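note to self — DONT lose this again. spent like an hour looking for the file last time. sequence + predicted structure for the chain T wanted, 269 res
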Amino acid sequence: MRHATVRDDGAGDGLTRADRARRVAHVLRGQVLRGAFADGVLPDERALVAEFGTSRNTVREALGLLRDEGLVARRRGVGTVVVGRAYQHPLGELSGLAEVLQRHGTVVNEVREARSVRPPLTVARRLGLAEGTPAVYLERLRRVDGLPLSLDCTYLIREVGEPLLARGREALERQDVFDLIERVAGAPLGRAEVSVQAVVADPATCAVLAMPEGGAVLAVERLTRLADGRPADLEFIHLRGDRLTLHATLDRATGATSGRGGRSRGGRR
């Protein structure tokens, strides 16, 4: 396996060893996330030194960065092994997180809250509701193979949300919400508007997701509409930044976007 060459002689480049280690770590991180090491073991230090044209100290520092991120670990008699799994969510298709994740592991949804509420005014406006109109609120913690991945906070219009509540918590834990909405609506969902921002998680979110304080999450806001264009579902999702990547294939000539075609580290909701 060939890597991009990163020279380490430092002649006239003004780079520190930390800079060079960061560059090496960028390449290795991408390979780990793509599942490039089929046996889960990285090449040994000597091979990495040769491949990157760098020093052993730089390679060790790069591997240390990946260890600090929880992606790899050093095991006696084996070497550096992949320990962190990340799951890939396609950006070019309207699907819930659980639908995609089920291809890669066992998905468990813990329903933390499910009830009728008076939504904040901003939420009501996004859902096209008059001020004071009730909505249904769902809060779910999602685990994949036992590890917390996301905290999903969802507001639904009553005509969609109340039939979901009537099905009980077991249905909300075992079935995708998008599937349930489409059954209630009797038609496929239409389109969605999505925004993604990397943020530092608050202490409460860190505790729920079992991540260190100050850790980064992908904050996703998604407004999903019914086939007739009416807003039905407004989600605020916090995804562990170390366990999920967003993927799309872009075509400059046509402007088309496809979320398919990548490999996972570990998407319907």
